[in-house]
Amino acid sequence: MATIHLSNPVTDLYGIGPAAEEKLAKLDIYTVYDLIAFIPWRYDDWSQLGTISSIDIPGSYNDNQGYDLSFRGTISTNPTVNITSRKKPLSFFVNDGTGRIKLTFFNSQYLAGKFSLGDECFVHGNATLFNGQMQMVNPYIEKAEKIEDNALVRPVYHLTAGITSNNISKWVRTAMKLCGDELLSVIPKSIAEEKGFVSPGRAYEMAHFPATLEEARKAREQLAYEELILLGIGMKLYSSGHGVKEVAEQVIPSGPDGIGREQAARWNLIKGNLGFTLTSDQTAAFRDVQTDLMSTVPMNRLIQGDVGSGKTMVAALSMVITALMGKQAVLLAPTSVLASQHYKTISRLMQNSGMEPVLLLGKTKPSEKAEINEKIASGSARVIIGTHALLTDDIRFKDLALVIADEQHRFGVKQREKLLFKDTVNDGTVKSVHNLIMTATPIPRTLAMVIYGDMATSVIRQKPAGRQEITTWFVNSKKSKAIEEMMSVKLAAGEQIYIVCAKIDKDETEAGSDNLIGGPVGGDESVTSVFEMKKMVDSMSDLSQYSSAVLYGSMKEKEKLETMERFIAGDIKILISTTVIEVGVDNPNANVMIIMDADRFGLSTLHQLRGRIGRGDKKSFCLLVSESRSELALQRMKMMCESSDGFELAEKDLELRGPGDFYGTRQHGIPTLRAANLYTDMKIASEATEAVNRIIEEGGEEAERLNDAIKKMFELRFARKMEQI
Ligand code: ADP
Ligand code: MG
Fold this sequence. Notes:
By secondary structure, the protein is α/β, with parallel strands linked by helices. 37% of the residues lie in helices and 17% in strands. It is built from 22 helices and 24 strands. The strands form 5 sheets. A 7-stranded parallel β-sheet has the order 12-13-11-14-17-10-18, sandwiched between helices. The chain has a 6-stranded parallel β-sheet with strand order 19-24-23-20-22-21, with helices on both faces. β15 (423-424) and β16 form a beta hairpin. α6 crosses α7, α9 runs parallel beside α10 and α10 (311-324) crosses α11 (336-349). The longest helix has 27 residues, at 213-239. The two termini are 36 Å apart. Bound molecules: adenosine-5'-diphosphate (ADP) and magnesium ion (MG). Magnesium ion is lined by residues 311-312, 406, 584.
């Protein structure tokens, strides 16, 4: 037999054919390694033996939940099949000395041949009352001598149809036997010793086949270390050479004659174009950026600020000052709608300054693109705004010094790497650019470190003055009159409205809408789609005079932009869309947002959506429409009505969804973790990564071992995923 390695496809394992391959792919399992790393998400503990009589103890049994019980006993009636009706279930009694219970098996006639009267066996099942008699339906049963005590903590895997936990267990056993010893540990020896860790192969064994729950817990702890070190260090190794010195241009000279008189005059003119004064948080953030731009150490800064806090202005000013100093700056936006909007804002800011920004989108005509490229190459265009169309190779910058990414998490890691525009020069140093990231997602500091490396952060907490609080209401029926009334009052006042839906049409959900709770809603009849909503709005008698339009991600770019422009211009009064508008659309005249099936969205998403309104000086309302009566949904709606603080809501989101499902990890562009929990294990992440970094910096044998292991394991664990996200 050919040797099988961790990187081999799963189909190389005995018993995995094309049908299983397809199903495993749904679980994100492609290689033998993926299979091993697919550890159970929880365990059923069958090892605590009970007695049949314990069912009768008051309070132990209840009609809704029945009674879960593991016990050993003797088969006390004949397990024969009813010959006259083979369809009838197989039933027999088992007695454990404290009492007896009836076991009933459907579609399991073969058991009749396997068990006979008097056999000692182990049983685990759920006892329920049926026709006045306690019984277990389809319990797990095995002959007592065949049961090993260490098989009684049963792994439970996140599964897909057609694959059972037993399948996984069997395949993992084979995989472990064939190449378990290829697994390398990325944990420093000192930590492993202190913690009493075992070999990674043994840890995976303990996770898949634990003898006790404690063993499973220990395995998970060790694997969390492996995973977090891999992620934290591996990401850095993956996206940059390690230990090379990077230098960026000094954009602003630090000396007394840094900014010349003429430049200062233009700068004042530009600030006059702002039309408002910066909030003190904006001022502080911009000062941070200016300081960074005075150094040749590449800026690596994150601006965190709630939606509407005015991050864009800080970015715009940073670009303009870079351009004033004769260097180039790029602003990357995740959507063309957003890029066009930024272009407008910045054009206004740069009026009469003698400079003009350029805009480059995927749909920009080739002739126009050539012209813009020419301007970029000659350096006559210094403020450059666009989407990832800017990341193609045919663009040559003259003197690029600053790259800003808006809502960065929307870019994949691969793209992120390109954003840094690194270039190795002759003397071995790497020429880099200053890098600024803007995000409205509140990211805990430790998590940011894992994702972005060692980043400086500027936080904008205040909202610009004069903003009105948004009033948020929970509407518990889609038929509520309140919806139509709110709409007609606001429309009559000349204002505009957003309506957000969780899906596009009957079957289709927005691609990549991982913000939806409970997975895709396509096909779920109870969820109102964009197109259904459009029909509903058109048929509301009070509203028929107002124009409405739909907007969703898979529309043609051109149509999307046109729709947005018409909405901003006021031609369209009611915009019915998916979460595409979550990112950055700015229309101060739209003061009402109606979110249909609001229970389907996470708190962070709801908050981001709501940030689209309340941008002008009018009173704004957000209606959360949901017919869900689930406790969790109602709690989330309540939170939204009570709080308008993004940071607070993010924390609550975490609390409500539970630590197992850290909100938006996918939004941050990091792959799903199997053992680690990004919230509760953050301390592990920072401590372990720091330790590894120290060792690698010091060099030596252990450093070499770790470097090598991290490289190999990262390749197996994350490399493929890096291309995808
Ligand atoms: P963010 O990008 O943080 O979501 P924006 O930069 O888009 O927020 O700003 C939201 C709105 O507030 C924009 O219309 C912008 O012109 C306006 N704005 C920004 N800063 C101020 C300020 N200091 N005073 C008044 N309005 C401001
Ligand atoms: Mg923004």
